[in-house]
Amino acid sequence: MKQLVVLGATGSVGRATLDVAGQHPDQVQVLALTAHTDVAAMVRLCRQHRPRLAVMADAAAARALAEALGGESIEVMAGMEGLTAAAALPAATEVMSAIVGAIGLRPTLAAINAGKKVMIANKEPLVMAGPMIMSAARASGAVILPIDSEHNALFQCLPPGYRCGTPPQGIARLVLTASGGPFRGWSAEAMASVTPAQAVKHPNWVMGQKISVDSASMMNKGLELIEAAALFSVTADQLEVMVHPQSTIHSMVTYVDGSTLAQLGSPDMRIPIAHALAWPQRWSVDVPALDLLALSRLDFEAPDRHAFPCLALAEATLRQGGIAPVVLNAANEMAVEAFLAGRLPFMGIPAVISEMLETVGSAPTAGLEHVMAIDAETRARAAAYVQTRSVG
Ligand code: NAD
Ligand code: MG
Hints:
Blueprint (H helix, E strand, L loop, with lengths): L1 E6 L4 H11 L5 E8 L3 H11 L3 E4 L2 H10 L6 E4 H9 L6 E4 L7 H9 L3 E4 L2 H18 L2 E4 L2 H9 L13 E8 L9 H4 L4 H4 L9 H9 L1 H14 L6 E5 L5 E7 L4 E5 L5 H9 L13 H4 L13 H12 L3 H17 L7 H10 L10 H21 L4
Parallel strand pairs: 1-2, 1-5, 2-3, 3-4, 5-6, 6-7, 8-9
Antiparallel strand pairs: 8-10, 10-11
Helix pairs in contact: 1-12, 2-3, 4-5, 5-6, 6-11, 6-15, 10-15, 11-14, 15-16, 15-17, 16-17
The structure holds nicotinamide-adenine-dinucleotide and magnesium ion.
Magnesium ion binds next to helix 7.
């Protein structure tokens, strides 16, 4: 029986994970769940899945959860201490890392240091500290399985027995597909006045707000390039982005002998989640079947880096390495938050990031605390800069 911990259980990926786990009650037992502030959602998930431990990152929310669950034998913890305790529970065998943002770095590392099978959806920690995370996994023996649909697709197209963190043999290129988001084909000028409601309306996927904005700016694909470089030990030159509006091919591996292998499926996160949860086996999962006859065609186009400067900024930091991706990620998180709150125009997102990267050299990162310090310092600088560009 797999003993599952879900970090970010109330989110889009967290709920999809519990849906897949719930389809296999004879194979998976839910051991711990974590969330930020949504007590009502957590109470429902606890009653349904009966974990041993429930964590709210917010202390007041943890008190409210403990009160609501009074009498039910579920331990409640709070804060970062609770998140890392859940991630490293001795009885846990599998951990789903599905918190959004840099805040997930410590819990994800805790699961890896404890040698768990760690399924990573939370891409921001891989952007900030990819090499550190992969070497921690080598040291502890933790198995890392990618959940991000592109990276899960690449993993499925790599040779059987391939382990994340090792350079794959015989590879010419890893091709990440991108839907292009809600503003595919738009000019930068046309995007100047788009609203948060327009930006989060993704054509193919239903996701959390932050990743939806990242998809609209194409920063999501930029973050995914850095994520892929870490997960698969490849260089920027071995990675390529291709816009594929149908989101049917989730990514492709081109081998040196001219073969290209692709993974196809409906745009539903339960597919990569089921793959990783069952790995190395396969489980059935109740998702809409892929109907290629109904689709009838697959289109491809080159990304427009002029209209979507976030993609080019991320590519530059991938080549730069060191602290640059940490700054990119923190600046983006701050800019997206300000955009969602109506304090920054959409095209202010790349402007904030490019300003924050201006003074950044190629200093290497020196451990977890250094990464967290760069993250905090960039957030403070970005907050001050957003004030000067504020729209109201
Ligand atoms: P979401 O906003 O729907 O959910 C985020 C989860 O993180 C929630 O459970 C929330 O309670 C928790 N959380 C937020 N802030 C927190 C904090 N400060 N402390 C502790 N917990 C906190 O996000 P999502 O769309 O499920 O995405 C989660 C991660 O997976 C992101 O990194 C995203 O890039 C990645 N991802 C998501 C999808 C998708 O389809 N949604 C696909 C690929 C990758
Ligand atoms: Mg993705």
